[in-house]
Design brief:
With 354 residues, the protein is an alpha+beta fold. Helices cover 39% and strands 18% of the residues.
Length: 354
């Protein structure tokens, strides 16, 4: 057999295409394939056999040509087989042997999951779920909550004020500025003005502040506030309620620690720490080696708040707390950047339980 050259590759490929075109059945087409690609006595096999008898300087070239012929014939065969399969398939037919195609399904956002869990826990404790307006006025958001006009939280650099004032309503003075609420505590005032004790409510919702967007801050975030008012309500009731919430939300071994603090609308006030559920209080990177994680602020309702809504502070006592939903989600899921919750990156969001 003469040694093959580059022109022979094109000749053999054209011959293979012609044989496929003449094939009247799949069996004849398979026979044509075997004559060119079979392991024995095929065109490609015979080309490979010539390498043994070829001069040393031509062995490499013959091997390259044989591989080119094999690849070209295989490509023609794949195209022929695909076309034959498509032609044989009835219009609209479905290949039931193919694996199913899973449809991408949406699911709840991790912040929604955390909020729903918190609402469910407090609902089981007997709290009513209420919501209020995100556009508030400064009397409900500040004045009635014992935050004087000179309080730094009311400065323009901290609060997002709106242009249009509103007229006075029940329990409130005359015209006053409107703003995007800085906390959901404003709804506590609205609820107490419309209801008499006993009161047991939680108020979830979005709040707004003039914060720069960074790892731990965002100008819009979510809170859930709680309020209990009645006769004989004590600080022990507050601690017991929060302890029950922590055990349900973070595990039965969770422990609380109250540290004295200051909030204008509660007295006494406290910051609440929870024992680190990752190290069980031994100290780790998550709790900054302290064994405790700050989680919320709380306190007994200030008598001035009761006076603002017409309650008798000598008769009624109560407690309130506020907790950031993003704060709980960051700690629970060990997320280092709060911005990830708002960037809508499915690679991040799909990592969380639905």
């Amino acid at each position: 057999m003469a040694l093959p050259d580059a022109a022979d590759v094109q000749v053999e490929v054209a011959r293979f295409e012609a044989e496929l075109a003449r094939a009247a059945s799949p069996r004849e087409a398979q026979a044509a394939r075997d004559r060119f690609l079979g392991r024995r006595n095929s065109v490609v096999a015979s080309w490979m056999q010539t390498i043994a008898s070829a001069p040393p300087e031509q062995k490499k070239q013959i091997g390259r040509l044989a591989n080119e012929l094999k690849q070209a014939v295989e490509e023609r065969w794949r195209r022929y087989a695909a076309g034959a399969e498509a032609a044989a398939r009835p219009a609209g037919a479905v290949d039931v042997t193919l694996p199913g195609r899973a449809r991408p399904l949406g699911h709840r956002h991790p912040l929604t999951v955390v909020r729903d869990q918190m609402e469910e826990i407090f609902s089981r404790m007997g709290f009513a779920l209420v919501e209020g307006p995100e556009v508030e006025d400064e009397w409900h958001c500040f004045d009635a909550l014992n935050m004087p006009a000179e309080h730094p939280a009311r400065d323009m650099q901290d609060t997002l004020y709106l242009a249009s004032p509103v007229a006075g309503d029940a329990g409130a003075p005359g015209d006053r500025r409107t703003l995007l609420r800085t906390h959901t505590s404003a709804m506590q005032i609205r609820y107490m003005l419309a209801h008499t004790p006993p009161i047991r409510i939680v108020v979830p919702g979005r709040v707004y502040r003039r914060d720069d967007l960074d790892l731990t801050h965002t100008p819009a975030f979510s809170q859930i506030e709680g309020l209990v008012v009645g006769e004989g309500i004590s600080l022990a009731d507050l601690k017991g309620t929060l302890a029950a919430f922590a055990r349900d939300m973070f595990g039965t071994g969770s422990r609380l620690r109250l540290r004295p603090s200051f909030f204008p609308y509660t007295e006494p006030s406290a910051e609440v720490d929870i024992s680190c559920w990752k190290c069980d209080g031994a100290g780790c990177a998550m709790c900054k080696r302290t064994g405790w994680i700050e989680i919320l602020g709380c306190g007994m309702v200030h008598p001035a708040v009761f006076e603002a809504v017409g309650y008798d502070p000598e008769r009624y006592t109560g407690f309130a707390w506020g907790i950031g939903i993003e704060r709980v989600a960051i700690l629970r899921y060990q997320v280092e950047d709060i911005r990830l919750f708002y960037e809508n990156d499915l690679r991040f969001l799909e990592q969380f339980p639905h």
